[in-house]
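Action item from last week, closing it out:
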Amino acid sequence: MSIMSLINGHTSPIFFALWLLAIVVALTVHEFSHGYSAYLLGDRTAKLDGRLSFNPIRHIDPIGMLMILVVGFGWAKPVMVNPYNLRNSKRDMAIISFAGPLSNFIMAFVAAFIFAFIVFFGSGMVASYVLQFFWYLIQINVILGVFNLLPIPPLDGSKILGLFLPDHLYYRYVSYPYGIFILLGLMVTGITWRIIEPIIRTIVNIFMLIAEAVFLIF
């Protein structure tokens, strides 16, 4: 269920457009959540940069999106955070980092309920397209959430794990300059997906089972 498998899994231009829309929505909410959580914790940098917006243009990086389309691995514009504006920079950076993946899991969970609703009550061609969009939205959000929790700098998971490290190790760890090369190596060799794909499938299945159970009960 990697990004590349999703790209290769559809041939219809409409399905491709729906997949692309789901990617944009997932990335936009992810980055907005980083910025908004930073704002709540006292840092106005994201607000001043115009990142507290659901406008995708504020968050989508053209090169990062092109990389997603070409190789299945890309990025959005990073949300800038000034740790000196935070009361407890180490703790608050972990919270800000976790806000992104958490927003993806919440969105996937909500999308699972909408998907189940359409399955039980929808019909027709339009419903099938909407159903496909929400299926993409579920998968992409879970992939994005799990992937970003990997504890490899500069991913969100590194700052979350860093919360449990002593200060003298924390700053060296989260600023480790070669993390991106380690990550790329793991991606190219397929090790990353072999690690996270069972987790992704489990989360998707749990969300779908809960959503379907609710509609079956009521």
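Closing note: The chain has a mean pLDDT of 92.
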